[in-house]
Amino acid sequence: MSQITELKFMREFIGVCAEGYRLGWHERNGGNLSYRMSAEDVASAKEFLQDGAPWQDIGTEVPGLKNEYFLVTGSGKHMRNVPLCPEENICIVKVDESGTKFQIQWGLVAGGRPTSELPTHLMNHEIKKQLTGGKYRVIYHAHPGNLIALTFVLPLEDKAFTHELWEMATENPVVFPQGIGIVPWMVPGGRDIAIATSKLMYKYDVAVWAHHGLFCAGPTFDDTFGLMNTVEKAAEICVKVKSMGGKCQTIPEKGFVQLAKDFNIELNQGFLNC
């Protein structure tokens, strides 16, 4: 392998960054992406990794991720530049034995740090790894405009927000059957928002950061990006419906129940109105 960017997980990571930017979710340096590498990924990238950079504090404790490797976007870096010059805008970090420090082993060649949201990403990677037996590997944060707009007009409450978006398209309850959690407005990049988000990640794969953006987790790049895309499309439809005067009809509650039965999904019964 002549270049690390030719590796499959690298190509997929870069592809998400590029597509998210194309859709307008990453103005300036907005948003971030992280991927917990598999043992096979680490082995395939081993010749490009360097052990020698200083260990830095994560800002939280993630013992469940000790000695794990992550591919992450850089702090202050622009998603539009990731496919143009990956080695300057993303990096591979290793978490130490204690789960309190990280070391950059590839990337950010012009200097810099991993995303300022690294504590949030790693805390939630730890939770999802535990809950899914290691199946979940991707966490994605973006700033989709329609979703952000809805945080100014919909109740900032899990059930109300979820139910409104479930109604916007028949597939929505199938894609996010457990619903959407809401984090009230908080200053990003610190431990407080990481803790608030992690509490929701025990229940959901989607968390809304009010007046800020969306935070999604999933097993693969396709699943996680697709989840983000589905929620944002639901928000777009909702914005259009509200701009046309509101709903005249909608999916009945019994319809949600039938969807769950036919698609063999566990719909969050607490979010139904029947």
TrEMBL record:
For this protein, what does the record note about how its cofactor is bound?
Binds 1 zinc ion per subunit.
Q: Name one GO cellular component term.
A: cytosol
What's the cofactor?
Zn(2+)
Which Gene3D superfamilies has this protein been placed in? Class II aldolase/adducin N-terminal domain
Q: Name one GO biological process term.
A: rhamnose catabolic process
Task: Quote the EC number.
Answer: 4.1.2.19
Question: What domain of life?
Answer: Bacteria
A Pfam family? Aldolase_II
**Positions contributing to Zn(2+) binding:** H141, H143, H212
> Which GO MF terms does the UniProt record name?
metal ion binding; rhamnulose-1-phosphate aldolase activity
Q: Which InterPro entries match?
A: Aldolase_class_II_sugar_metab (IPR050197), Aldolase_II/adducin_N (IPR001303), Aldolase_II/adducin_N_sf (IPR036409), Rhamnulose-1-P_Aldolase (IPR013447)
Q: Where in the cell is it found?
A: Cytoplasm
Q: Please indicate if the UniProt record lists Lyase as a keyword.
A: yes
Class II aldolase/adducin N-terminal domain segment(s): 11-239
For this UniProt record, give its keywords in alphabetical order, as a comma-separated list. Cytoplasm, Lyase, Metal-binding, Rhamnose metabolism, Zinc
Q: Where is the active site?
A: E117
- Catalytic reaction equation(s): L-rhamnulose 1-phosphate = (S)-lactaldehyde + dihydroxyacetone phosphate
Record pathway: Carbohydrate degradation; L-rhamnose degradation; glycerone phosphate from L-rhamnose: step 3/3
Please describe what this protein does: Catalyzes the reversible cleavage of L-rhamnulose-1-phosphate to dihydroxyacetone phosphate (DHAP) and L-lactaldehyde.
Q: Hey, which family's this protein in?
A: Belongs to the aldolase class II family. RhaD subfamily.
Question: What protein name is recorded for this chain?
Answer: Rhamnulose-1-phosphate aldolase
What phylogenetic lineage does the species belong to? Bacteria, Pseudomonadati, Pseudomonadota, Gammaproteobacteria, Aeromonadales
